């Protein structure tokens, strides 16, 4: 009876995961979608704890160590709740990377534990020279090893991504790195194929009953242990590849990397679900893996990058190109009063949010500026680049937090069609996503990346703290164009003063 109820719990959880993901596609239902998916996860967790049964010597057995399980649940939930509650929006990408890394680590540890479980649960008789252990099916060892590789890469790669976003890990590029990464990937795939081929037929040798002088027995023992050495060798190589894969990636490309690593964790979780024959785990992993993969492909398209380049770790361009940041001319500043005057009498204003807006926590005052301008008859819209910020959808989440009308958020293609009809474009902390070098300079590390073509408007006002280059580390020639004016200062303070000036016009 308990088994049938548990199956129903997994079915309910799977349905809630699908519904939750569907609801996440729109800002008005996203919060509710999170709660629905979380409810399904809770049902599957507690259903497993209280209803799971397995057969031992023909008798039914349940989970043991419930106090340890609940202690772990409490500690993990408390850490997750406090971390998510206290995190600033600017640090959200770091938290996402860290949590994603923990998911990869879980999948990795599951593979290690299950491989050990399959190989060493049975104890040989002292009289047996060779003892065949519980054999793995080809699909089982493939699922375990795939979860090990993908989970390990996701774990180590996410930790490096977390360090880069936090500023404690710098880009590391050396000659031949792309070739080394490709070689490591080939070795990993080859090792997995070999391991899958030899594991179902390996034997365990009872060392107590082997004559050390018996060469045949020694040979059997070596062959039987080879798959174990290979398994842990794959684990080490996967962790190393995850580090080398993320190290050279440029800062402006981190949203794509985070999305890709997220899809890795989903696939690793699906592999664990296959190993345990757990429908909820399998469904959740497939959904995360598929959604993350599709998002990665869409973002690669938005960045005009190859997914293969992401995988081999050459994403982000040449470091030498990124270092080129010499000023290309003279810029001009605009006063608050002049900026307020121009925007007050404009017919259409487009706001381009960037990481600087998130750093200043200025999304609410930005929404207030929008309201003030609309009261004066000005049409206000927002231009959102797919990779603005530090993670996928960063600007959408930021503006949704300030209750900005979702209908006013234009995707890149829509915004580029409307820039030519804009009187003023106000750029708030965005840099690389509006850099014309992406279209004009083949030597630039962001060359080929589709950008917001703000230079098509009549006037561009750029709010920045300083002339310091953006996350990609390159100069922005937009700042030196005749129609561009710089408005220096913290985004929140500047917008507050701008609101006051516009009210007075």
Structure explained in plain terms:
This is NAD(P) transhydrogenase subunit beta. Residues 8-500 form the NADP transhydrogenase beta-like domain. The chain crosses the membrane at residues 5-21, 33-52, 64-83, 95-118, 138-162, 183-206, 226-249, 256-276, 282-300. This protein has helices at 2-23, 27-51, 66-86, 92-120, 138-166, 177-198, 215-246, 254-276, 279-303, 307-311, 319-323, 336-344, 355-359, 363-375, 394-401, 412-418, 437-440, 491-504, and strands at residues 54-56, 59-61, 130-131, 204-205, 348-353, 379-384, 409-411, 424-428, 460-464, 484-488. It is an alpha/beta fold and 505 residues long. It folds into 3 domains: 1-86; 90-317, no CATH class; 323-504, TPP-binding domain (Rossmann fold), CATH 3.40.50.1220. The chain has a 6-stranded parallel sheet. A two-stranded antiparallel sheet has the order 1-2. The radius of gyration is 27 Å and the shape is globular. It starts with a helix and ends with a helix. Residues 121-134, 202-213, 216-220 and 314-327 have low confidence and may be disordered.
Report the portion of residues in β strands.
5-15%
Number of continuous helical runs: 18
Distance between the termini: 74 Å
Give the strand tally: 10
Q: In terms of per-residue confidence, which ranges show pLDDT below 50 for 5 or more consecutive residues?
A: 121-134, 202-213, 216-220, 314-327
Membrane topology: Multi-pass membrane protein
Protein name: NAD(P) transhydrogenase subunit beta
Domain NADP transhydrogenase beta-like: 8-500
Subcellular location: Cell inner membrane
């Amino acid at each position: 009876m308990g088994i049938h109820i548990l199956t129903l719990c997994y079915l309910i959880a799977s349905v809630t995961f699908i519904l939750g993901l569907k609801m996440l596609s729109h800002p008005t239902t996203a919060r509710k979608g999170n709660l629905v998916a979380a409810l399904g996860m809770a049902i599957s967790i507690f259903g497993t704890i209280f209803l799971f049964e397995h057969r031992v010597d023909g008798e039914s057995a349940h989970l043991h160590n419930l106090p340890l399980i609940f202690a772990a649940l409490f500690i993990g939930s408390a850490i997750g709740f406090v971390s998510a509650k206290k995190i600033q929006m600017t640090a959200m990408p770091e938290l996402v990377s860290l949590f994603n890394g923990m998911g990869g680590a879980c999948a990795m540890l599951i593979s290690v534990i299950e491989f050990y479980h399959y190989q060493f649960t049975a104890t040989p008789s002292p009289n047996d020279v060779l003892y065949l252990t519980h054999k793995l099916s080809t699909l089982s060892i493939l699922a375990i090893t795939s979860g090990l590789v993908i989970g390990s890469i996701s774990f180590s790669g996410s930790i490096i991504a977390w360090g880069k976003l936090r500023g404690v890990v710098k880009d590391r590029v050396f000659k031949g790195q792309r070739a080394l990464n490709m070689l490591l990937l080939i070795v990993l795939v080859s090792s997995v194929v070999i391991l899958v081929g030899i594991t179902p037929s390996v034997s365990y040798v009872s060392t107590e009953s082997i004559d050390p002088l018996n060469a045949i027995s020694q040979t059997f023992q070596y062959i039987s242990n080879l798959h174990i050495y290979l398994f842990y060798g794959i684990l080490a190589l996967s962790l190393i590849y995850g580090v080398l894969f993320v190290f050279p990636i440029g800062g402006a490309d981190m949203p794509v990397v985070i999305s890709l690593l997220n899809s890795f964790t989903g696939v690793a979780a699906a592999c664990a679900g296959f190993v345990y024959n757990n429908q909820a785990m399998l469904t959740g992993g497939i959904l995360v893996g598929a959604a993350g993969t599709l998002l990665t492909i869409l973002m690669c398209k938005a960045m005009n990058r190859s997914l293969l380049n992401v995988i081999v770790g050459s994403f982000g361009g040449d470091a030498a190109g990124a270092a080129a940041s010499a000023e290309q001319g003279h810029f001009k500043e605009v006063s608050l009063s002049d900026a307020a005057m121009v925007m007050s009498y404009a017919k259409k204003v487009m706001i381009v949010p960037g990481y600087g807006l998130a750093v200043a926590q200025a999304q609410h005052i930005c929404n207030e500026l929008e309201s003030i301008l609309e009261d004066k008859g000005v049409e206000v819209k927002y231009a959102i680049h797919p990779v603005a910020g530090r993670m996928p959808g960063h600007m959408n989440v930021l503006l949704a937090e300030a209750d900005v009308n979702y209908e006013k958020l234009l995707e890149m293609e829509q915004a580029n069609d409307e820039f030519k009809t804009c009187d003023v474009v106000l750029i708030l902390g965005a840099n690389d996503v509006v850099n014309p070098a992406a279209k004009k300079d083949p030597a630039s590390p962001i060359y080929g990346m589709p950008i917001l073509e703000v230079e098509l408007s009549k006037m561009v006002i750029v709010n920045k703290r300083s002339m310091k280059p953006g996350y990609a580390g390159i100069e922005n020639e937009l700042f030196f164009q005749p129609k561009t004016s710089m408005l220096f200062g913290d985004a929140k303070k500047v917008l507050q003063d701008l609101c006051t000036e516009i009210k007075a016009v």
